[in-house]
Automatic annotation (TrEMBL):
Annotated organism of origin: Tuwongella immobilis
Domain of life: Bacteria
SUPFAM superfamilies the record matches: Alkaline phosphatase-like
Taxonomic lineage: Bacteria, Pseudomonadati, Planctomycetota, Planctomycetia, Gemmatales
Pfam families per the UniProt record, alphabetical: DUF1501
Listed name of the protein: DUF1501 domain-containing protein
InterPro entries in the cross-refs: Alkaline_phosphatase_core_sf, DUF1501, TAT_signal
Amino acid sequence: MSFANPASASLRHRPLSRRNFLQIGSLGLGGLTLPNLLRAESTAGVRSSQKSVILIYLVGGPPHQDMFDLKPDAPKEIAGPWKPIQTNVTGIQICEAFPRLAQLMDKMVIVRSLVGNQADHDAIQVYNGFDPRKPKPSGGWPQFGSAVAKLQGPVDPSVPPFISLCYTCTHGPYNEPGPGYLGASYSPFRPMGPAQKDMMLNGVTVSQLADRKNLLRSFDSIRREVDTNGMLRGMDTFNEQAFGLLTSSKLAEAMDLSREPDKIVKRYGTGNPKIHMDENGAPRVPQSLLMARRLIEAGARVVTLNYSKWDWHGGANNSIFKREAEDFPVFDQCVSALVEDLHNRGLDKDCTVIVMGEFGRTPKISDQVGRDHWPQVNCALMFGGGMTTGQVIGATDKQAGMATARPVTFGELFATLYHNLGIDPMQTTITDLNGRPQFLVADQAAPMRELIG
Protein backbone atom coordinates (compact mmCIF):
# COMPACT_ATOMS: atom_id res chain seq x y z
CA MET A 1 0.00 0.00 0.00
CA SER A 2 1.04 3.59 -0.52
CA PHE A 3 0.06 6.11 2.10
CA ALA A 4 0.51 9.83 1.74
CA ASN A 5 1.97 12.23 4.26
CA PRO A 6 3.12 15.55 2.76
CA ALA A 7 5.13 16.33 5.88
CA SER A 8 7.62 13.57 5.11
CA ALA A 9 8.71 15.05 1.78
CA SER A 10 9.53 18.43 3.28
CA LEU A 11 11.34 16.88 6.24
CA ARG A 12 13.72 14.99 3.96
CA HIS A 13 15.09 18.22 2.52
CA ARG A 14 15.96 20.25 5.56
CA PRO A 15 18.06 19.79 8.71
CA LEU A 16 16.41 18.05 11.61
CA SER A 17 15.29 20.23 14.48
CA ARG A 18 13.41 19.52 17.65
CA ARG A 19 10.21 20.64 15.95
CA ASN A 20 10.89 18.39 12.99
CA PHE A 21 11.73 15.54 15.32
CA LEU A 22 8.30 15.77 16.89
CA GLN A 23 6.60 16.27 13.53
CA ILE A 24 7.93 12.98 12.16
CA GLY A 25 6.24 11.15 14.99
CA SER A 26 3.05 13.15 14.63
CA LEU A 27 1.03 11.30 12.02
CA GLY A 28 -2.65 12.12 12.48
CA LEU A 29 -4.92 9.58 14.13
CA GLY A 30 -8.31 11.23 14.17
CA GLY A 31 -6.69 14.58 14.95
CA LEU A 32 -4.21 13.20 17.47
CA THR A 33 -0.48 12.71 17.06
CA LEU A 34 0.74 9.16 17.23
CA PRO A 35 3.10 9.78 20.18
CA ASN A 36 0.21 11.32 22.14
CA LEU A 37 -1.93 8.31 21.38
CA LEU A 38 0.78 6.03 22.71
CA ARG A 39 1.07 8.16 25.84
CA ALA A 40 -2.68 7.97 26.38
CA GLU A 41 -2.68 4.21 25.94
CA SER A 42 0.22 3.96 28.37
CA THR A 43 -1.82 5.88 30.93
CA ALA A 44 -4.76 3.56 30.35
CA GLY A 45 -2.63 0.53 31.10
CA VAL A 46 -2.22 -2.78 29.32
CA ARG A 47 -4.08 -5.95 30.21
CA SER A 48 -2.68 -9.36 29.47
CA SER A 49 -5.80 -11.10 28.17
CA GLN A 50 -7.21 -10.52 24.73
CA LYS A 51 -10.90 -10.78 24.43
CA SER A 52 -12.14 -8.95 21.37
CA VAL A 53 -15.17 -7.63 19.50
CA ILE A 54 -15.92 -7.15 15.80
CA LEU A 55 -18.82 -4.75 15.24
CA ILE A 56 -20.37 -4.85 11.76
CA TYR A 57 -22.72 -1.98 10.89
CA LEU A 58 -25.24 -2.65 8.10
CA VAL A 59 -25.53 0.90 6.84
CA GLY A 60 -29.03 2.30 6.55
CA GLY A 61 -31.09 -0.30 8.42
CA PRO A 62 -31.54 -3.89 7.18
CA PRO A 63 -35.00 -5.41 6.52
CA HIS A 64 -35.43 -7.73 9.49
CA GLN A 65 -38.59 -9.38 8.12
CA ASP A 66 -36.80 -10.38 4.90
CA MET A 67 -33.70 -11.73 6.66
CA PHE A 68 -34.12 -13.32 10.07
CA ASP A 69 -37.79 -12.83 11.03
CA LEU A 70 -39.85 -13.93 8.03
CA LYS A 71 -43.64 -14.03 8.27
CA PRO A 72 -44.70 -16.39 5.46
CA ASP A 73 -48.34 -16.49 6.64
CA ALA A 74 -48.74 -12.71 6.50
CA PRO A 75 -50.49 -11.06 3.53
CA LYS A 76 -48.25 -10.76 0.46
CA GLU A 77 -47.93 -6.99 0.86
CA ILE A 78 -46.16 -7.74 4.14
CA ALA A 79 -44.51 -11.12 3.61
CA GLY A 80 -42.77 -10.35 0.32
CA PRO A 81 -41.40 -13.01 -2.06
CA TRP A 82 -38.77 -14.69 0.15
CA LYS A 83 -39.49 -18.03 1.78
CA PRO A 84 -38.04 -19.30 5.07
CA ILE A 85 -35.76 -22.33 5.22
CA GLN A 86 -35.02 -24.60 8.14
CA THR A 87 -31.64 -24.13 9.84
CA ASN A 88 -29.56 -26.81 11.56
CA VAL A 89 -31.33 -25.88 14.80
CA THR A 90 -34.80 -27.36 15.03
CA GLY A 91 -37.52 -24.72 14.97
CA ILE A 92 -35.35 -21.83 13.76
CA GLN A 93 -35.92 -20.59 10.21
CA ILE A 94 -34.26 -17.79 8.26
CA CYS A 95 -34.39 -16.45 4.70
CA GLU A 96 -33.81 -18.92 1.87
CA ALA A 97 -31.12 -16.57 0.53
CA PHE A 98 -28.89 -17.54 3.49
CA PRO A 99 -28.25 -21.28 3.00
CA ARG A 100 -24.72 -21.14 4.43
CA LEU A 101 -25.81 -19.27 7.56
CA ALA A 102 -28.69 -21.70 7.96
CA GLN A 103 -26.20 -24.54 8.37
CA LEU A 104 -24.32 -22.58 11.03
CA MET A 105 -27.29 -21.55 13.16
CA ASP A 106 -26.02 -23.64 16.07
CA LYS A 107 -23.06 -21.23 16.24
CA MET A 108 -25.13 -18.03 16.12
CA VAL A 109 -27.79 -16.06 17.97
CA ILE A 110 -30.59 -14.06 16.39
CA VAL A 111 -32.11 -11.21 18.38
CA ARG A 112 -35.54 -10.52 16.87
CA SER A 113 -36.84 -8.00 19.38
CA LEU A 114 -34.39 -5.09 19.54
CA VAL A 115 -36.34 -2.03 20.68
CA GLY A 116 -35.59 1.63 21.39
CA ASN A 117 -34.32 2.42 17.88
CA GLN A 118 -34.29 6.01 16.66
CA ALA A 119 -36.51 6.90 13.70
CA ASP A 120 -33.89 8.57 11.51
CA HIS A 121 -30.53 7.51 10.20
CA ASP A 122 -27.91 7.93 12.89
CA ALA A 123 -25.10 5.42 13.20
CA ILE A 124 -24.19 6.60 16.70
CA GLN A 125 -26.57 4.21 18.46
CA VAL A 126 -25.05 1.26 16.62
CA TYR A 127 -21.57 2.26 17.80
CA ASN A 128 -22.25 3.16 21.44
CA GLY A 129 -25.75 1.95 22.32
CA PHE A 130 -27.03 5.36 23.47
CA ASP A 131 -30.17 6.94 22.04
CA PRO A 132 -29.00 10.15 20.32
CA ARG A 133 -32.33 11.82 21.13
CA LYS A 134 -31.72 11.65 24.86
CA PRO A 135 -29.51 13.95 26.98
CA LYS A 136 -25.80 13.30 26.83
CA PRO A 137 -22.76 14.60 28.70
CA SER A 138 -20.64 17.43 27.40
CA GLY A 139 -18.57 16.16 24.48
CA GLY A 140 -21.00 13.34 23.75
CA TRP A 141 -20.89 9.62 24.50
CA PRO A 142 -17.74 7.81 23.39
CA GLN A 143 -18.21 5.01 20.93
CA PHE A 144 -17.72 1.49 22.22
CA GLY A 145 -14.20 0.98 20.84
CA SER A 146 -12.99 4.25 22.35
CA ALA A 147 -14.26 3.25 25.79
CA VAL A 148 -12.54 -0.13 25.51
CA ALA A 149 -9.28 1.53 24.47
CA LYS A 150 -9.53 3.78 27.52
CA LEU A 151 -10.28 0.95 29.93
CA GLN A 152 -8.01 -1.79 28.62
CA GLY A 153 -5.34 -0.23 26.43
CA PRO A 154 -3.39 -2.16 23.79
CA VAL A 155 -2.57 -5.84 23.91
CA ASP A 156 0.57 -5.20 21.88
CA PRO A 157 2.32 -1.79 21.74
CA SER A 158 2.56 -2.10 17.95
CA VAL A 159 -1.17 -2.71 17.43
CA PRO A 160 -3.76 -0.06 18.40
CA PRO A 161 -6.52 -1.42 20.66
CA PHE A 162 -9.29 0.10 18.53
CA ILE A 163 -9.16 -0.09 14.75
CA SER A 164 -11.85 1.16 12.39
CA LEU A 165 -12.21 -0.32 8.91
CA CYS A 166 -15.20 1.94 8.25
CA TYR A 167 -15.37 3.75 4.95
CA THR A 168 -16.44 7.40 4.99
CA CYS A 169 -19.96 7.81 3.58
CA THR A 170 -21.05 11.00 1.87
CA HIS A 171 -24.28 10.85 3.88
CA GLY A 172 -23.03 12.10 7.24
CA PRO A 173 -25.40 10.22 9.57
CA TYR A 174 -24.05 6.91 8.24
CA ASN A 175 -20.58 7.60 9.65
CA GLU A 176 -19.29 6.36 12.98
CA PRO A 177 -19.11 8.93 15.78
CA GLY A 178 -15.97 10.14 17.47
CA PRO A 179 -14.57 9.34 20.91
CA GLY A 180 -16.96 11.75 22.64
CA TYR A 181 -15.86 13.13 25.98
CA LEU A 182 -12.79 10.85 26.02
CA GLY A 183 -11.07 13.11 23.51
CA ALA A 184 -9.06 12.52 20.35
CA SER A 185 -6.54 10.23 22.03
CA TYR A 186 -9.18 7.49 21.95
CA SER A 187 -10.15 7.86 18.32
CA PRO A 188 -9.82 4.66 16.30
CA PHE A 189 -6.81 3.92 14.18
CA ARG A 190 -8.18 4.16 10.62
CA PRO A 191 -6.03 2.40 8.03
CA MET A 192 -8.65 2.59 5.27
CA GLY A 193 -9.50 5.37 2.84
CA PRO A 194 -8.10 8.89 3.41
CA ALA A 195 -6.51 7.87 6.73
CA GLN A 196 -4.13 5.44 5.06
CA LYS A 197 -1.43 8.01 5.70
CA ASP A 198 -1.64 6.96 9.33
CA MET A 199 0.25 3.81 8.39
CA MET A 200 3.39 4.97 6.61
CA LEU A 201 5.35 8.06 5.63
CA ASN A 202 4.90 8.89 1.95
CA GLY A 203 7.69 7.55 -0.25
CA VAL A 204 9.79 6.32 2.68
CA THR A 205 10.52 2.62 2.96
CA VAL A 206 10.86 0.76 6.22
CA SER A 207 14.63 0.62 5.81
CA GLN A 208 14.74 4.36 5.23
CA LEU A 209 12.66 4.88 8.33
CA ALA A 210 15.19 2.84 10.25
CA ASP A 211 17.97 5.13 9.00
CA ARG A 212 15.92 8.17 9.94
CA LYS A 213 15.39 6.67 13.36
CA ASN A 214 19.15 6.39 13.86
CA LEU A 215 19.54 10.00 12.81
CA LEU A 216 16.96 11.09 15.30
CA ARG A 217 18.70 9.21 18.06
CA SER A 218 21.91 11.06 17.43
CA PHE A 219 20.80 14.56 16.47
CA ASP A 220 21.30 17.71 18.49
CA SER A 221 22.49 16.29 21.80
CA ILE A 222 23.22 19.81 23.05
CA ARG A 223 19.55 20.77 22.87
CA ARG A 224 18.69 17.69 24.89
CA GLU A 225 20.95 18.84 27.71
CA VAL A 226 19.49 22.32 27.81
CA ASP A 227 15.90 21.11 27.78
CA THR A 228 15.54 21.92 31.45
CA ASN A 229 11.85 21.05 31.72
CA GLY A 230 12.50 17.52 30.49
CA MET A 231 9.79 17.69 27.82
CA LEU A 232 11.96 16.45 24.94
CA ARG A 233 13.45 13.68 27.05
CA GLY A 234 9.93 12.58 27.98
CA MET A 235 8.77 12.69 24.40
CA ASP A 236 11.59 10.46 23.23
CA THR A 237 9.98 7.35 24.69
CA PHE A 238 6.72 7.90 22.87
CA ASN A 239 8.40 8.80 19.59
CA GLU A 240 10.39 5.59 19.93
CA GLN A 241 7.11 3.69 20.30
CA ALA A 242 5.59 5.66 17.42
CA PHE A 243 8.37 4.54 15.12
CA GLY A 244 7.89 1.02 16.39
CA LEU A 245 4.23 1.18 15.37
CA LEU A 246 4.97 2.71 11.98
CA THR A 247 7.64 0.17 11.12
CA SER A 248 6.02 -2.82 12.78
CA SER A 249 5.52 -5.68 10.40
CA LYS A 250 2.76 -7.07 12.63
CA LEU A 251 0.15 -4.48 11.77
CA ALA A 252 1.19 -4.21 8.12
CA GLU A 253 1.14 -7.98 7.70
CA ALA A 254 -2.30 -8.21 9.28
CA MET A 255 -3.61 -5.87 6.60
CA ASP A 256 -1.91 -7.69 3.75
CA LEU A 257 -4.52 -10.13 2.47
CA SER A 258 -2.02 -11.59 0.02
CA ARG A 259 -0.63 -13.46 3.03
CA GLU A 260 -3.95 -15.23 3.43
CA PRO A 261 -4.48 -18.53 1.55
CA ASP A 262 -6.36 -17.94 -1.71
CA LYS A 263 -9.08 -20.38 -0.73
CA ILE A 264 -9.84 -18.34 2.41
CA VAL A 265 -9.99 -15.05 0.50
CA LYS A 266 -12.30 -16.65 -2.05
CA ARG A 267 -14.41 -18.09 0.75
CA TYR A 268 -15.14 -14.58 2.03
CA GLY A 269 -15.40 -13.02 -1.40
CA THR A 270 -14.15 -9.63 -2.54
CA GLY A 271 -15.71 -6.32 -3.47
CA ASN A 272 -14.60 -2.99 -4.84
CA PRO A 273 -13.87 -0.51 -2.01
CA LYS A 274 -14.21 2.41 -4.43
CA ILE A 275 -17.85 1.70 -5.26
CA HIS A 276 -20.12 3.08 -2.56
CA MET A 277 -23.50 1.38 -2.74
CA ASP A 278 -26.23 3.72 -3.99
CA GLU A 279 -23.44 6.32 -4.08
CA ASN A 280 -23.81 7.52 -0.48
CA GLY A 281 -23.60 4.22 1.44
CA ALA A 282 -20.57 2.13 2.32
CA PRO A 283 -18.90 -0.15 -0.21
CA ARG A 284 -19.93 -3.80 -0.30
CA VAL A 285 -16.55 -5.22 0.68
CA PRO A 286 -16.68 -8.79 2.04
CA GLN A 287 -12.92 -8.84 2.54
CA SER A 288 -13.35 -6.29 5.34
CA LEU A 289 -14.62 -9.14 7.52
CA LEU A 290 -11.48 -11.14 6.79
CA MET A 291 -9.34 -8.09 7.51
CA ALA A 292 -11.13 -7.65 10.83
CA ARG A 293 -10.35 -11.23 11.81
CA ARG A 294 -6.68 -10.75 10.92
CA LEU A 295 -6.48 -7.55 12.96
CA ILE A 296 -8.05 -9.28 15.96
CA GLU A 297 -5.44 -12.01 15.68
CA ALA A 298 -2.73 -9.35 15.50
CA GLY A 299 -3.88 -7.93 18.84
CA ALA A 300 -6.69 -5.42 18.28
CA ARG A 301 -9.39 -5.47 20.93
CA VAL A 302 -12.18 -3.83 18.90
CA VAL A 303 -12.56 -3.62 15.13
CA THR A 304 -15.50 -1.79 13.57
CA LEU A 305 -16.56 -1.92 9.94
CA ASN A 306 -19.46 -0.70 7.83
CA TYR A 307 -20.88 -2.87 5.10
CA SER A 308 -22.92 -1.99 1.99
CA LYS A 309 -26.15 0.02 2.15
CA TRP A 310 -29.48 -1.36 3.32
CA ASP A 311 -31.74 1.69 3.09
CA TRP A 312 -34.03 0.27 0.41
CA HIS A 313 -37.08 2.47 -0.10
CA GLY A 314 -37.63 1.11 -3.61
CA GLY A 315 -38.22 3.11 -6.76
CA ALA A 316 -38.05 2.66 -10.49
CA ASN A 317 -36.00 -0.43 -11.37
CA ASN A 318 -34.61 -0.52 -7.84
CA SER A 319 -37.10 -2.44 -5.74
CA ILE A 320 -36.08 -3.66 -2.32
CA PHE A 321 -36.29 -7.25 -3.50
CA LYS A 322 -33.96 -6.62 -6.43
CA ARG A 323 -31.39 -5.17 -4.06
CA GLU A 324 -31.85 -8.00 -1.59
CA ALA A 325 -31.24 -10.51 -4.36
CA GLU A 326 -27.92 -8.77 -5.02
CA ASP A 327 -26.78 -8.30 -1.43
CA PHE A 328 -28.13 -11.30 0.44
CA PRO A 329 -25.94 -14.00 -1.23
CA VAL A 330 -22.77 -11.94 -0.71
CA PHE A 331 -23.72 -11.34 2.91
CA ASP A 332 -24.42 -15.04 3.40
CA GLN A 333 -21.01 -15.92 2.01
CA CYS A 334 -18.83 -13.49 3.98
CA VAL A 335 -20.60 -13.72 7.33
CA SER A 336 -20.68 -17.53 7.24
CA ALA A 337 -16.98 -17.49 6.36
CA LEU A 338 -16.28 -15.40 9.46
CA VAL A 339 -18.33 -17.74 11.66
CA GLU A 340 -16.41 -20.75 10.35
CA ASP A 341 -13.08 -18.96 10.61
CA LEU A 342 -13.56 -18.10 14.28
CA HIS A 343 -14.27 -21.73 15.10
CA ASN A 344 -11.57 -23.18 12.86
CA ARG A 345 -8.94 -20.87 14.36
CA GLY A 346 -9.98 -21.24 17.99
CA LEU A 347 -11.28 -17.68 18.27
CA ASP A 348 -14.91 -18.51 18.97
CA LYS A 349 -14.51 -18.27 22.75
CA ASP A 350 -12.71 -14.93 22.79
CA CYS A 351 -13.97 -12.92 19.81
CA THR A 352 -17.56 -11.65 19.86
CA VAL A 353 -19.15 -10.53 16.59
CA ILE A 354 -22.31 -8.43 16.37
CA VAL A 355 -24.08 -7.46 13.12
CA MET A 356 -26.84 -4.83 13.12
CA GLY A 357 -28.25 -1.63 11.66
CA GLU A 358 -29.87 1.46 13.14
CA PHE A 359 -33.52 0.33 12.86
CA GLY A 360 -35.81 -2.19 11.15
CA ARG A 361 -38.06 -1.73 8.11
CA THR A 362 -41.80 -1.25 7.77
CA PRO A 363 -43.92 -4.40 7.71
CA LYS A 364 -45.98 -3.13 4.76
CA ILE A 365 -44.27 -2.96 1.38
CA SER A 366 -44.66 0.54 -0.05
CA ASP A 367 -46.06 1.52 -3.44
CA GLN A 368 -42.44 2.07 -4.50
CA VAL A 369 -41.75 -1.61 -3.68
CA GLY A 370 -39.60 -0.75 -0.73
CA ARG A 371 -39.70 -0.81 3.03
CA ASP A 372 -39.31 2.43 4.96
CA HIS A 373 -37.81 3.25 8.37
CA TRP A 374 -39.30 1.32 11.29
CA PRO A 375 -37.94 2.16 14.77
CA GLN A 376 -40.42 -0.02 16.65
CA VAL A 377 -38.33 -3.18 16.30
CA ASN A 378 -34.99 -4.25 14.88
CA CYS A 379 -32.87 -7.40 14.70
CA ALA A 380 -29.25 -8.31 15.41
CA LEU A 381 -27.03 -11.29 14.66
CA MET A 382 -24.36 -12.36 17.17
CA PHE A 383 -21.79 -15.14 17.40
CA GLY A 384 -18.54 -16.09 19.11
CA GLY A 385 -17.51 -14.74 22.50
CA GLY A 386 -18.16 -18.04 24.26
CA MET A 387 -21.87 -17.18 24.24
CA THR A 388 -24.73 -19.66 24.39
CA THR A 389 -25.57 -19.94 20.69
CA GLY A 390 -28.09 -21.85 18.59
CA GLN A 391 -31.01 -19.75 19.78
CA VAL A 392 -33.41 -16.95 18.92
CA ILE A 393 -34.04 -14.27 21.51
CA GLY A 394 -37.35 -12.41 21.44
CA ALA A 395 -40.29 -12.52 19.07
CA THR A 396 -42.48 -10.15 17.06
CA ASP A 397 -46.12 -10.11 16.07
CA LYS A 398 -47.59 -11.65 12.92
CA GLN A 399 -46.37 -8.73 10.82
CA ALA A 400 -42.88 -8.39 12.38
CA GLY A 401 -43.97 -4.93 13.47
CA MET A 402 -43.77 -5.02 17.26
CA ALA A 403 -41.87 -7.01 19.88
CA THR A 404 -44.20 -9.44 21.63
CA ALA A 405 -41.67 -11.34 23.75
CA ARG A 406 -38.39 -10.47 25.48
CA PRO A 407 -37.76 -6.95 24.19
CA VAL A 408 -34.01 -6.32 24.07
CA THR A 409 -32.42 -2.87 24.42
CA PHE A 410 -29.24 -1.51 22.89
CA GLY A 411 -27.95 -1.14 26.45
CA GLU A 412 -28.28 -4.89 26.97
CA LEU A 413 -26.44 -5.64 23.74
CA PHE A 414 -23.53 -3.40 24.68
CA ALA A 415 -23.50 -4.61 28.26
CA THR A 416 -23.03 -8.11 26.82
CA LEU A 417 -20.16 -6.93 24.61
CA TYR A 418 -18.42 -5.30 27.57
CA HIS A 419 -18.99 -8.39 29.70
CA ASN A 420 -17.44 -10.59 27.02
CA LEU A 421 -14.35 -8.38 27.11
CA GLY A 422 -14.03 -8.84 30.86
CA ILE A 423 -15.41 -5.39 31.73
CA ASP A 424 -18.20 -5.15 34.29
CA PRO A 425 -20.75 -2.79 32.67
CA MET A 426 -22.82 -2.45 35.83
CA GLN A 427 -19.95 -1.21 37.99
CA THR A 428 -17.38 0.38 35.67
CA THR A 429 -17.51 4.12 35.05
CA ILE A 430 -15.44 6.63 33.08
CA THR A 431 -15.11 10.25 34.17
CA ASP A 432 -16.52 12.80 31.72
CA LEU A 433 -15.29 16.32 30.97
CA ASN A 434 -17.07 17.69 34.05
CA GLY A 435 -15.47 15.16 36.36
CA ARG A 436 -18.62 13.09 36.68
CA PRO A 437 -18.47 9.30 36.54
CA GLN A 438 -20.51 7.91 33.65
CA PHE A 439 -21.64 4.32 33.27
CA LEU A 440 -20.77 2.52 30.06
CA VAL A 441 -24.24 1.59 28.86
CA ALA A 442 -27.65 3.21 28.78
CA ASP A 443 -29.76 2.74 31.91
CA GLN A 444 -27.02 0.62 33.49
CA ALA A 445 -28.38 -2.33 31.56
CA ALA A 446 -27.22 -5.81 32.48
CA PRO A 447 -25.64 -8.32 30.10
CA MET A 448 -28.13 -10.64 28.43
CA ARG A 449 -28.63 -13.61 30.71
CA GLU A 450 -29.59 -15.82 27.76
CA LEU A 451 -26.12 -15.38 26.27
CA ILE A 452 -23.77 -15.50 29.20
CA GLY A 453 -25.44 -18.20 31.28
